[in-house]
UniProtKB/TrEMBL annotation:
Domain Reverse transcriptase, residue spans: 33-159
Species classification: Bacteria, Pseudomonadati, Bacteroidota, Chitinophagia, Chitinophagales
Pfam families from the UniProt entry: RVT_1
Organism this protein belongs to: Niastella yeongjuensis
CDD domains: RT_G2_intron
Coiled coil: none
Xref: InterPro entries: DNA/RNA_pol_sf (IPR043502), GrpII_Intron_Splice-Mob/Def (IPR051083), RT_dom (IPR000477)
Family indicated by similarity: Belongs to the bacterial reverse transcriptase family.
Protein name in UniProt: Reverse transcriptase domain-containing protein
Length: 164
């Protein structure tokens, strides 16, 4: 289906289903792409409608949580880029005398997120029941991986923009 051609009718229907709580999170398609080290990186590909809703909810979450982030944090934050991160790093090393750089990689971060801990964290600031229920639906959605449908009890599927 060419979603673009039908967007005039589909998007209002999508918003109505979302607001009423009737939207059901579809299964995520997992694909594996090669990483630089020869290993494979799993990515979860949502449907067009799911991607639209996830983007909208992400924008709300960014507004709610932005003030909690460390100012020197640049990863996947609105208005921040890898170029700004490099400029900050250069400034710290060249002008402020800092000589230590830590390179850390959290293995399987997205795949190991505890759903209950995530829910408790969200409950601290997210009071909108529609958003909370939608996030729960996404957490419970199935993942289609190599023809097998699985229902993970932990983790979130990293999307195509994920650093995972």
């Amino acid at each position: 289906m060419d979603y673009h051609k039908q967007r005039e009718t589909r998007i209002p229907q999508l918003l109505t289903a979302f607001k009423s709580g009737n939207y059901r999170a579809p299964n995520i398609l997992r694909v594996h792409i090669p990483k630089g080290d020869g290993k494979l990186r799993p990515l979860g590909l949502p449907t067009v409608e799911d991607k639209l809703l996830q983007t909208a909810v992400t924008r709300v979450l960014q507004l709610v949580y932005e003030d909690m982030f460390y100012p020197g944090s640049y990863g996947f934050r609105p208005g921040k880029s890898q170029h700004q991160a490099l400029e900050e790093l250069s400034s710290q090393v060249s002008w402020k005398g800092n000589r230590n750089i830590i390179d850390a990689d959290m293995q399987n971060y997205f795949g190991s997120i505890n759903h209950q801990c995530l829910r408790e964290f969200l409950d601290l600031r997210i009071k909108d029941g529609v958003i909370r229920k939608m996030i729960d639906k996404w957490l419970k959605a199935g993942v289609l991986d190599n023809g097998q449908l699985i229902y993970p009890t932990e983790g979130t599927p990293p999307g195509e923009r994920s650093p995972h």
